[in-house]
Design brief:
The protein is mainly beta. The chain is built from 3 helices and 29 strands. It has 2 domains: 185 residues, no CATH class; 185 residues, no CATH class.
């Protein structure tokens, strides 16, 4: 039987059946005017999903491992290179230290002795038996627990006696004194050396030698030598020396010291040991001279003291000509000079008392020079009236300059130049001074001139009258002159007092002393 339905029913039934079954038969095509898109399939359960590796992750891991291997290799290479350099330096320094000392030892490493000879060098077995400190003293970390001693003899009639140190592992003290019993021998200078150290091995790092040279005279001395460099230097590598030079009473030609990190002390030689020339030099430490001024127990034709980063002090020092120089260290004390004296430092003060002696119409000169440190000096000028002459310079910066002349022979010219900057400058002169003066500072600061109350006695005893005359005063400049009796330019001195941004002062009363 064929049942025919309506057109709508014939087309709706298959479509409904097919949609319910979940698929569309191949023979049935959707109308062209219908936009049909099948829904996406449901996601697979997580446990059954496929895992696809990411190639970028593997590439990043490879790069990270390569980078780590590179940095590890570079660090290892740098470490090996540094260790090789340290080992090479250690071997070189040990080669220097372990040289055979009797053949010259470390002394051969210093060219100033190429023309000389190390006569005797003290090696480790040559030191006297070591003496250690007590148990309580060893507990003090700043005291080396061991010390040893040795001594040398030098001819007293040598043209030059030299004492020196070289190297970076050494420091200590030098004491120059008169020989006393039982060490008195008119022909021999005795040198006693004490070494203090932290370990027995430290003795291998030092060479102490008796030196001899016969070029331009007979030169004898004692030298202390250690390496210039010591890798990884520690406290136990340092060596400490005490050197005592015992001089028999006599006249000496030249005595020289040249030490590094040594302090130098010259005892009162009581006029029993005199020198034509004496040169004392050290660095990074102090020089102290304890020499009586009057009646001139120890006098020097020339004396040169040089140090750096430390103090120069003389209780009383007398010389025909002197030069004391420091850097970053103060200069102080009392000095007596006949010809010339230079006291020069930097970044430190100068505090001195100076006796200047003018003889045989010769001008006695004095230079006081520093920077960033004050100058305070009292001067005593000695010599016959009229024929003696004096010249003084005091120069600093950023600190006060104060120079006071306490005594001066009448009718003897004195030239005085006091200069500083950004600080006051003061000059005080006795009533015997005669000559023109100039006071100068920055604008808007008026210079100060002090003349007293007018009741001043003639230092020559001739009853002359003193005249103080201001010839020019413009803002911060004051000029004038002072003289006894009638003015004449001949035989007069002059004074300049100069500063900036600070007051300047000239005191002609002769009554102010520090």
């Amino acid at each position: 039987m064929i049942v025919k339905g309506s057109k709508d029913n014939a087309m709706q039934a298959p479509e409904t059946r097919d949609l319910k079954s979940g698929y569309v038969p191949v023979s049935i095509q959707p109308p062209h005017n219908i936009d049909y898109t099948a829904p996406p399939p449901p996601p697979a359960p997580p446990m059954y999903g496929a895992v696809v590796p990411n190639p970028l992750v593997g590439y990043a891991d490879t790069r990270r491992r390569t980078r780590c291997r590179f940095w590890h290799a570079l660090f290892a290479a740098l470490l090996i290179w540094i260790l090789a350099i340290l080992a090479l330096r250690t071997l070189l320094d040990l080669h220097i230290v372990n040289r055979h000392h009797p053949s010259g030892g470390l002394a051969k490493d210093y060219p100033e002795f190429d023309t000389g000879e190390a006569l005797q060098c003290i090696d480790r077995p040559d030191w006297s038996s070591s003496a250690s400190l007590s148990r309580e003293e060893k507990m003090l970390s700043h005291v080396p627990p061991y010390h040893s001693k040795t001594s040398f003899s030098l001819p007293a009639d040598a043209d030059t006696l030299s004492f020196l140190s070289r190297g970076s592992l050494v420091e200590g003290n030098v004491h120059i004194t008169l020989a006393s019993e039982p060490f008195v021998d008119d022909e021999t200078v005795r040198v006693e050396v004490t070494i203090r150290y932290w370990s027995e091995d430290a003795l291998d790092r030092a060479s102490v030698c008796k030196l001899e040279r016969h070029e331009n005279g007979d030169h004898y001395g004692v030298g202390i030598f250690t390496p210039q460099r010591w890798p990884g230097r520690a406290k136990q590598d340092q060596l400490y020396f005490d050197v005592v030079v015992r001089l028999p009473p006599r006249a000496y030609k030249t005595l020289e010291t040249d030490y590094i990190n040594f302090s130098t002390h010259v005892s009162n030689l009581q006029g029993n040991a005199t020198f034509e020339k004496i040169h004392l030099k050290t660095s990074n430490s102090l020089i102290h001279a304890d020499v009586c001024l009057f009646p001139g127990n120890a006098t020097f034709e020339k004396i040169h003291l040089k140090t750096s980063n430390s103090l120069i002090h003389a209780d009383s020092l007398e010389a025909f000509e002197g030069s004391l120089r420091s850097s970053n260290g103060p200069i102080s004390g009392r000095y007596n000079v006949t010809n010339s004296l230079e006291l020069v430092t930097s970044n430190s003060p100068i505090d001195t008392i100076v006796d200047m002696n003018s003889e045989n119409s010769h001008t006695a000169s004095l230079l006081l020079k520093t920077s960033n440190g004050h100058i305070h000096s009292n001067l005593f000028l000695h010599g016959p009236p009229v024929t003696s002459a004096f010249a003084v310079q005091a120069i600093t910066s950023n600190s006060p300059a104060d120079v006071r002349v306490v005594t001066q022979p009448h009718s003897s010219p004195l030239t005085l130049d006091v200069r500083t900057s950004n600080s006051p400058a003061i000059a005080v002169l006795p009533t015997a001074f005669e000559g023109p003066f100039i006071l100068r500072t920055s604008a808007f600061i008026i210079p100060v001139l002090r003349t007293g109350d007018g009741t001043v006695e003639d230092p020559s005893g001739e009853g002359r009258e003193r005249t103080v005359e201001v010839t020019r005063q413009i803002r911060s400049v004051l000029e004038g002159k002072v003289f006894w009796g009638e003015w004449t330019r001949k035989g007069k001195g002059w004074v300049h007092v100069t500063s900036s941004n600070s007051p300047v002062e000239l005191d002609l009363t002769g009554t102010r002393t520090r």
